[in-house]
Write a structure and sequence with these properties.
By secondary structure, the protein is α/β, with parallel strands linked by helices. About 20% of the residues lie in helices and about 35% in strands. The protein has 7 helices and 26 strands.
């Protein structure tokens, strides 16, 4: 008999760090390496065991629901999904608590602007109560870390450690063998009011579980990517393009276009008399003429002419002409130099 794995995805929020791109679209629908952040996010689960049925639990803000739901229904019509609206942003644990009616049995929890590459094929044989995925970094003081004992078991999660002695940063990707045990811990977290700035963070619920004797281990990821800020989404775009999410050979067949790999140019984009790359993603319906562009992401139907552009994010329907630019423009902006 197959088992159902719940995949909880808290994504409610204002996306303030990605403005102006997120004024009128959710962060998960931002363009990235020939797709959207959500497309690449969902690919993380391709290595799950075939005998595990997947049920996604999307936890969204009221203003995100319509767009994200429509995108899933259009592009992933066979995806088994539940939808929960988090009306008030009170943190990760609160988001999961709002979704409690859908969370039973084994579950994964991961944040929608975090992308990792990890092998999930052995998850159906996991015997411990939980797994926290981690990545060693040179300076962990801006993150949360997992403290691990000599037996390799997690003893505590520490938010923003004061020293460099432990660099195992928790990347926001967790497995819980029992969603019910996690929900019990969240309820205890609420009872103790374990919060910061009126937000209930998941790390504190995990610490409650550890106090209760539940056994967790860590698993290192080889790749940890962030799509939550302008500078990091450009870095993530560059990494994905350099690791197979590009179409440079096809793009280079366009007459009058010099392509410096890796790049992704949508088949419907019109590009002429231009130099494209490296690390450029160009969306559907875009038009470029006499443009030199590198390390940038262009959303659909954006038009550029007679300019040099680098390190930039352009939303849908942007129009730009003339001069050298380094910009972050939301949808339907217009710049003429």
């Amino acid at each position: 008999m197959s088992q159902t794995l719940k995949i909880a995805i808290p994504m409610a929020g204002y996306g303030s760090r990605m403005r102006p791109q997120t004024w009128n679209k959710p962060k998960v629908l931002l363009p990235l390496a020939g797709g959207t952040v959500l497309d690449h996010f969902l690919q993380q689960f391709d290595t799950l065991p075939a005998n595990l049925e997947k049920e996604y639990v999307f936890i969204v803000s009221p203003f995100q629901l319509e767009q994200v739901q429509a995108y899933i229904q259009e592009h992933y019509p066979h995806l088994r999904a539940q939808w929960v609206v988090q009306e008030v942003m009170r943190g990760q644990s609160d988001a999961l608590w709002n979704a409690r009616q859908h969370l039973t049995g084994p579950m994964l929890m991961t944040f929608s602007d975090t992308l990792v590459e990890t092998d999930l094929s052995g998850l159906n044989t996991e015997t411990l109560d939980g797994v926290a995925w981690v990545k060693p970094v040179p300076d962990p003081r801006s993150f949360g870390v997992a403290e691990v004992n000599a037996a390799g078991r997690v003893t505590r999660l520490v938010e923003k450690p004061q020293d460099l002695s432990n660099n195992l940063v928790v990347v926001g990707f967790y497995y819980f063998r029992s969603a019910e045990a996690l929900l019990d811990a969240i309820q205890e977290q609420f009872r103790r009011n374990l919060s910061l700035n009126n937000e209930f963070f998941l790390a504190e619920a995990v610490n409650v579980m550890l106090e209760q004797g539940l056994q967790f281990r860590v698993q290192e990821v080889g790749t940890w990517l962030d799509a939550g800020k302008p500078v990091t989404i450009l870095e993530t775009n560059a990494w994905l393009l350099a690791h197979g999410r590009e179409n440079s050979i096809e793009a280079a067949r366009r007459p009058g276009v010099a392509v410096i790999p890796p790049v992704y140019i949508h088949p419907t984009a019109q590009v002429e008399s231009s130099v494209v790359g490296p690390h450029v993603s160009i969306g559907a319906g875009c038009s470029l003429k006499n443009v030199v562009i590198q390390n940038s992401i262009l959303d659909a139907n954006t038009r550029l002419e007679n300019l040099v552009l680098a390190d930039s994010l352009l939303g849908r329907g942007v129009t730009m002409t003339g001069a050298v630019q380094h910009v972050n423009l939301g949808d339907t902006s217009a710049v003429k130099a």
